[in-house]
Amino acid sequence: MADDSDSWVALYVCLILALTLIATRLFLRRLRHQSFSRGDYWCMAAAVFILTRLVANHFLLVYGSTRTLTQMERTALMRGPEDELSKKIAGSKLVLCTRTLLVCVLWSAKMAVLDLLASLIVRLPFELRLLYSFWAVLFATFIASIVTTFSSCAPIRLHWQIDPDPGNCVIGSAWIYTYEFSNIATDALLMALSFTLVLSVRIPKMQKFRILSLFGVGALLIAISVVRILEGRISRTQAGHTLWASLEVFFATLVAVIPTIYALVRNKRKDTGYTYDENEVTIRGRGDRTQSAVMAEGDNDKYTARIWTELEDGQFREDNTSASKILVHEEWEIERSGPNT
């Protein structure tokens, strides 16, 4: 087993904490008697990828890989026991597995964040164009990151070739540049969208500051990505790759779950149904879409009090996942419910 305490500690501490955060989000969701949202399912997918990566990375640290070998070590390995050679080849193949799982974790977390933001922009005039644009960007960057995982060395067998030395392609510089720049760009876009939404509504300054702080955690993830680009592009040691990748997983999970955990902790009620009363109104938008919502009396702001279904304490909500009853744009016609509604 490799004697690399930093890698082992980072692997297990960061990934177990990430799994704990996801479990906490799901537990609180059920505790509040709310159905799972799409964001919750993306977090579940991320948890599966994290757990699988934990197992794969464990064996990678045990076996090692060809990217850490000097030419002298390669020659000795070719002349040594067959089982040591097999382990090194298996470890090198696991590198591709862990890289793929890392990308899957990060992009699943991004989809969870986008699902939360989608619930806030779902009734904006440009909602579909905005959402489609984000989906397209996330899909394109995900595919690019996966493709470069396997295409860094051509043919692919060079990833686990022992002798002769396949060269620097085993470091995965092309993959690191592609997925990290994609990671930075998509995180920056999601942060910009979240900050724009928060700053556009009238809520108490301290609450606004808290919500901005929750989404601002993404800045740490961007900083880690920058450091990994600088550290990992020429690194032939497993320690650096495992350490920074584990930190990325943890902070990506933190960004994906902490706003929802915040909302669920603040939500003291266990609402299981939507409350209809004399304050009920019908909102008609483009395409004759109608929906019911409880309007805050005297609220003439751009959005109603229901904009923060995920980030308010939810007195009048059906659950935290009801995107169809969240955002009301000021240009919509608002009519009192009548017998013909």
TrEMBL record:
How does this protein sit in the membrane?
Multi-pass membrane protein
Q: Looking at the keywords, is Ribonucleoprotein present?
A: no
Q: Where is the Rhodopsin domain?
A: 25-266
Transmembrane segments in this chain: where?
6-28, 40-63, 100-122, 134-157, 211-230, 242-265
* Localization terms from the record: Membrane
Question: What keywords are assigned to this protein?
Answer: Membrane, Transmembrane, Transmembrane helix
- Superkingdom, taxonomy of origin: Eukaryota
GO cellular component terms given for this protein: membrane
PANTHER family, alphabetically?
Answer: PTH11-LIKE INTEGRAL MEMBRANE PROTEIN, PTH11-LIKE INTEGRAL MEMBRANE PROTEIN (AFU_ORTHOLOGUE AFUA_5G11245)
Task: Name the family.
Answer: Belongs to the SAT4 family.
Its protein name is: Rhodopsin domain-containing protein
Instruction: State the organism of origin.
Output: Ampelomyces quisqualis (Powdery mildew agent)
